[in-house]
Amino acid sequence: MRLEQIVAQLGGRLIGDGSVEILQVGALSSAGRGQISFLTNPKYRAQLKTTHASAVIVSEKNASDTEIPRIVHANPYAYYARVTALLNPPPTRAQRVHETAVVLSPLPVSVTIDAHVVVGRRVCLGENVVLYPGCVIGDDVSIGADTVIYPNVVIYPRCVIGARTIIHAGAVIGSDGFGFAKEGECWVKIPQIGRVVIGDDVEIGANTSIDRGALDDTVIGNDVKLDNQIQIAHNVRIGDHSAMAGCVGVAGSTTFGKRCTVGGAGMISGHLEIGDDVHVSGGTLVGKNLKQPGQYTAVFPLEPHIDWLQNAAHLKRLAKLAARVEELEKKLEDMSKTQ
Amino acid sequence: MRLEQIVAQLGGRLIGDGSVEILQVGALSSAGRGQISFLTNPKYRAQLKTTHASAVIVSEKNASDTEIPRIVHANPYAYYARVTALLNPPPTRAQRVHETAVVLSPLPVSVTIDAHVVVGRRVCLGENVVLYPGCVIGDDVSIGADTVIYPNVVIYPRCVIGARTIIHAGAVIGSDGFGFAKEGECWVKIPQIGRVVIGDDVEIGANTSIDRGALDDTVIGNDVKLDNQIQIAHNVRIGDHSAMAGCVGVAGSTTFGKRCTVGGAGMISGHLEIGDDVHVSGGTLVGKNLKQPGQYTAVFPLEPHIDWLQNAAHLKRLAKLAARVEELEKKLEDMSKTQ
Amino acid sequence: MRLEQIVAQLGGRLIGDGSVEILQVGALSSAGRGQISFLTNPKYRAQLKTTHASAVIVSEKNASDTEIPRIVHANPYAYYARVTALLNPPPTRAQRVHETAVVLSPLPVSVTIDAHVVVGRRVCLGENVVLYPGCVIGDDVSIGADTVIYPNVVIYPRCVIGARTIIHAGAVIGSDGFGFAKEGECWVKIPQIGRVVIGDDVEIGANTSIDRGALDDTVIGNDVKLDNQIQIAHNVRIGDHSAMAGCVGVAGSTTFGKRCTVGGAGMISGHLEIGDDVHVSGGTLVGKNLKQPGQYTAVFPLEPHIDWLQNAAHLKRLAKLAARVEELEKKLEDMSKTQ
């Protein structure tokens, strides 16, 4: 693809030779002939001088930092994402229902149902839905147009998945929430009769699980991105454009506003209200409502084990240390008076 | 279903019009006509006055707090769990072996084996067992009566699953424990020849994994409830009636007593003894034996990131701070003497 | 198997009656007739006197601590691992392609492809590869000789798996890395065009996920052992002979040297360099480069909940406490001068 063809399709301002051939994307430091790279982080600006890329994507303020053919755009990283998609189209898949699939619902002709898939009764699939091998779609599920579901995903009955959503292999949507009543020393299961309702343009990572609601639904908003190994408990609600990194857990009935992020292994307790634009650092346990936007953190600082041993031991005596300091303050005050 | 029919089946004391029609359960705040709700948390007592539910389940002490038809019972939450089950029976499943299943063992006629299931050799299934699509049951596995296993669960050879147990989609039971001997810089695998033995009335969450024992078995007691994304390592033993929330990990050979709970993302080190009635808070790492009942916690307190930066920096100098306080105490003591 | 036959196959020095029959391995404390045990931990040396094992494996220095038939070897634990393998050979599997498998590539005759497996186009399998039921192997994947893949594993297109590797049930290899560019409040997906490249003699646990690289590959070295429920993000590189316990997460582009270990639920931030022989304690979050070998820890110390409440509250005022101590030091200094 020629550079000028990319600009014709994706916009931006072309500077330099538009006829240069672009085959693939690459990092500034490693890209070679036929590759297009990009600059967003000013830290790497010097690499603009040394890169062997055939073209680069830069913002207006870096437009004259290089001589090589370039595309100037307000958001080089998003532009780069689109170029990557343009140069790496998804494999074309035969639109058909594989002979080993078990399908109990009528389907649009544009869908692709791969080997050993099971589609239950009264399932509603949008146009161009792709179900990779081994997926199990429960009765009464609805899946929006252009959604792609990778192998061995399980969607329990009655769940709703939006359009243009991607669900990675091994994810489980709609399993029972963890709800039990205590009776003596025994647990009585509370049937989980809500659903999982997932919006449009969502991505859900490999082996992530999202439980169905107890009474009401578990709701994942539009453009929410969930990484791998995440656990979303029953009746959680996640606002539009939020993103959570790998190994995050969100306990039951907690509500997130819009544009929130949670770093890897962040853990959010149940029944909390997290407002819009809240950012939880990786490894942080959140145990209270967070209604103000901002970044919140709770991580023990890393140390060589031998130093940690000492500081951790003193941490267990911190309340006593504070009392000793208070005592010192009083004594010193008394001494000042008597002097 | 009429309210009096519910009482006839589940017990409790009926006050008010027993002929009212009950179609579904609901929360006090949102329930409407045809729905039954319940009160356990005194915080919500005022809602008894305003709810639009057609009936409620209350304890003796709240019996006269409302005029609407009500069921009085010692444990309204457990009663509510049973009403939910009564009003939401599981879908009836055709008792049959799907033509795409591969079954190498004789089976009772009452079982349901769905599409693409694999049942190995010498497998023993109890009456009414349900295996959803894509489950793989290894050779010599035994599964008790009325157990339900959701799609794409894998049970390795020789494991034992009790009766009335529920295993959610994507769970893996009986994978090899993580056992290696070091030889130079290389690892030598120690074959894991124990089993996983799971009791009756257990529930295991989506994408949870339980490793088989190295020599002896990994044992999950009766009425144990494990949420999603949990990792149980080899030779762990969990006592009856214990419950663990999502993302918990238990390392090898640790033993739990009865009625223990672990909050979400709690992590338990290996080779520990945890007694009866121990409760580990969410996000807490347990690194020592806990023989006394009670609740244990180890969580860094949450703060705005900017405050955390300061406090965490001082935490790395805590041992030095304690030494400085001790020094101050000595000096003050000396000054007192010399005065 | 007679003890002398074991020595003939695995080496070591035999002391005592080599004709004793050995059927299985066992722990010193519980082994009985026909079982062989071992001693490595000096803590258990006394059990050499009381064990009912028919034979033991000991090091040179414990060779005369017992009268029972014994094998003397420099590394009794590794020897024990090999004896366990010898006495517990893996089940022989029919070398064949199950009639329900969907295979779109030519295969060596020595492979075992079980029920409902899907093997894509241009897949290259080595000799003796075993694919258990329900595995889905994407197009252009390569798998080395003698590798065993347990049920319902998914390997995305173009990934490379080495020889003698074991992948446990439910693992996902090659799902998209978590890469999005922000545009306004929306996320633009960055197609992930790298691969996952896994070395020889690797073991990957149940329900573990390893993402494919964004541009370059995610690389798992030789003899790396990953436990269950682990998340490896895009472009991570893990050096040879490293091992990670259950529930570990490694964020994007972090590089590990050789012979590293990470304890259970250890979490490693992105874009870090971890050197050779670094050992991260369980539950520890690593947020900076670790170039020096050694053990590193960051774990809040466990306490009864009531004590934790106090100490944690003071931790949030630690910077203030340190300031108060500094103030005290100044005052005391001033008082000393004025005296």
From TrEMBL, chains A, B, C:
Residues 311-338 form a coiled coil. Pathway: Bacterial outer membrane biogenesis; LPS lipid A biosynthesis. The active site is at H234. The keyword Lyase does not apply. Its EC number is 2.3.1.191. It catalyses: a UDP-3-O-[(3R)-3-hydroxyacyl]-alpha-D-glucosamine + a (3R)-hydroxyacyl-[ACP] = a UDP-2-N,3-O-bis[(3R)-3-hydroxyacyl]-alpha-D-glucosamine + holo-[ACP] + H(+). The keyword Calcium does not apply. Pfam families: Hexapep (PF00132), LpxD (PF04613). Residues 20-86 form the UDP-3-O-[3-hydroxymyristoyl] glucosamine N-acyltransferase non-repeat region domain. Keywords: Acyltransferase, Coiled coil, Lipid A biosynthesis, Lipid biosynthesis, Lipid metabolism, Repeat, Transferase. InterPro entries: Hexapep, Hexapep_transf_CS, LpxD, Trimer_LpxA-like_sf, UDP_GlcNAc_AcTrfase_non-rep. One of its GO terms (molecular function) is UDP-3-O-[(3R)-3-hydroxyacyl]-glucosamine N-acyltransferase activity. Catalyzes the N-acylation of UDP-3-O-acylglucosamine using 3-hydroxyacyl-ACP as the acyl donor. Is involved in the biosynthesis of lipid A, a phosphorylated glycolipid that anchors the lipopolysaccharide to the outer membrane of the cell. PANTHER family: UDP-3-O-ACYLGLUCOSAMINE N-ACYLTRANSFERASE (PTHR43378), UDP-3-O-ACYLGLUCOSAMINE N-ACYLTRANSFERASE 1, MITOCHONDRIAL-RELATED (PTHR43378:SF2). Belongs to the transferase hexapeptide repeat family. LpxD subfamily. Homotrimer. This is UDP-3-O-acylglucosamine N-acyltransferase. It comes from Dentiradicibacter hellwigii. The gene is lpxD.
